[in-house]
Every structure is written in structure tokens, then in C-alpha cells.
Amino acid sequence: MTWRTSRELRAPMVAAMTGNDLGHPSIRQSGEAQEAMCAALLAVLTSAGFTAREHDNDMSPFGVRVLAGPADG
Q: 27 in helix, strand or coil?
């Protein structure tokens, strides 16, 4: 499961990255938003009975891997 920031947040970050402006605040803001959403997704899924963890794909560092659904009962 993945989540992306809005285009309004993503566009300045992409422009900064492609322009090699690695200190631009939009890069930090985008990373913090993605990290927060990953934590929120994990919390919501776990509370609903799913088994989930952060995805181990280093090309998608804020992805969530759902391992199992809630147990029947």
C-alpha cells in the first residue's frame, strides 16, 4: 500500500530535487508528510485487525505492506 502527497506538495519537491537544491524546505516537508502518513496507515490498519508493517522496498521507503487481514470472528 502506498500513499502520495498532493501535487501541490510534490511539485516543489520534485523541482528542488531535479534542480539539485537538496536543502530546499519542500524536500523535508514532503518526507515528513510521507513518514506521518505511513505511521497513520499502520495505526489504522493495525487497529482494524490487519497485520501490517513498513514495506522493505528501499525504492518506496514509506510504503506499507499488509501481511494479513483481520481474523474472522
A: helix
